[in-house]
Sequence to fold (109 residues):
Amino acid sequence: MANLKLISLECKKTEDWSGADEPYLRVNGNNVWGPISLNNGQSATVDRTVEFSQTAEIALYDQDVGSWFDTDDHLGTLAANTDQVGQGEQRGRFNKDGADYTLTWEVLA
Ligand SMILES: [Ca+2]
Ligand SMILES: [Ca+2]
Fold:
């Protein structure tokens, strides 16, 4: 087992055409943070720690209306794993659907 510490999420470019996105993070299928409101050039402190074994799949979504004609957008998936214990802060990008987000995390024992 290891602990995934989600540190911050930076939004360079939103997915929504007008105004802010409502990003939220899921780890191995569970909602762990958000949705909050983020616009171009803004970043947010996440500060969530999630326990996992082997691999943690971190997915970013933008919440939309949520009905069949406007479901939430999947903006990408990153993987953290137990090999990252002691490696310091890691960074990854979510850039599906024209969005551009950077996540910073750290894996702790
Ligand atoms: Ca959207
Ligand atoms: Ca949205």
